[in-house]
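Why does residue order matter? Because the sequence determines the fold. Keep that principle in mind as you read this record.
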Amino acid sequence: MEESYEMLIIGAGPAGLTAGLYGSRSNLKTVIIEKGLVGGELLNTEAIEDYTGFEHIKGVELAELMERHARKFGVEINTYEEVKSVRRADGMFEVKTVNELSGEENLYRAITVIATAGGTPSKLGVVGEDEFAGRGVSYCAVCDGAFFNGQVITVVGGGDAAVEEANYLTRFGSRVYVVHRRDEFRAQKILQDQLSQNPKAEMIWNSAVEEIKGNGEVDRVVLRDMKTDEVREHPTQGVFIFIGFKPNTYFLDDHPAHDEGGHLITNERMETSVPGLFAAGDIRSQMVRQITNAVGDATVAALAAEKYITHLKHVQSESGA
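Structure:
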């Protein structure tokens, strides 16, 4: 199957659905390609309390509302379809996909592509991690820290993100423990100093999380001492894991400019270094990764893409193409 569109969006999370809404509202032939279900990381979020206008809403509910709003303006959404490659050819983008259910290969052609495929937090891969996701296990301090007010929090990791987020979490937790496999952090010295001087923080060196346990919600983790091999249980109500984050850019054949973490670098119009390719949300190089800024990025990206398309059509009309 081969289809042609004016705007093609990769990923149906908050950024992708917002871009789709604005693309279809601009009367552009718009499609969103999603390898799973509509909603992205919203589907893995139990409750959201930091999205303007909603004091408390479940991630699934917000995903449904966003999808309904986008579909109202006619955007096409194709789920269970994984993008395998994106490349420019003859002034258009060729996007190859594979249907996850049927195995059918499809080819899309589009004037513009907006990458909103997000990224994937690195996991520990231990027993209980998936079971307690959203019920004590988190990968985002800003998103979930307030849920653990007055409770014991355990942070796992030793890089900038782990140390910085541990400092942030001391605003909420009665005690914040940082578990690291080594006897020193990899984080910047200034971040380490801030944490070591924080009276609510405590480091657990040379230790690794072996298992996460609980009864409905997390209440303890199993730690192994990397030097003595001793195993013990550590009481905690929250486990925040910061051992890495990988943006989903593997399908981009043209290798746009990116930062050292692989996130795409854009200008204020969300344009990447590849003409016609825009980026929004967690896939983009930026300071924070929240629903609010993903939606803002996508708004800019879609409207900038519309202007890009309008300009191309004007140029083609002037040249008689």
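The mean pLDDT is 93.
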